[in-house]
Amino acid sequence: MKFSILSDAFGEMEQTRKRTELTGILVRLFEKTPQENIAKIVYMLQGMLRPGFEGVELGIAEKTAKRAIAKSSGAPASEVDRTYKKEGDLGAAAQKVLQSKTQSTLASQEITVERVYETLLKIAGLSGSRSQDLKVRHISSLLNDADATESKFILKLLLRTLRLGIAENTIMDALAAAYAGSKESRPVLEAAYNVSSDLGRVAETVAALGIDGVAAFDLEVNSPIRPMLADRVKSEADALKKMGVSFSAEYKLDGERVQIHIGGGRVKVFSRSNEEITSYYPDIVENIPPLIDAKEAILEGEAVAMTHDMTEFRPFQELMHRRRKYKVSQAVSEYPISVNFFDLLYVDSQSLLDDPYMARRKRLEKIVKHDGDGFSRCIKRVTVTSEDEISEFMEESVAAGCEGLMLKADDSPYQAGARGSHWLKLKREYKENLGDSLDLVVIGGFFGKGKRTGVYGTLLLATYEPDTDTYSSICKVGTGFSDEDLDRLYQILSPKVMLKRDARIQSGMEPDVWFVPELVIEIVTSEITLSPTHLSAMDAVRKGYGMALRFPKFTGRIREEKAAEDASTSEEVITLYRGQVKTAAGDAD
Ligand code: ATP
Question: Is 562 labeled as catalytic in the residue annotation?
Answer without folding.
Answer: no
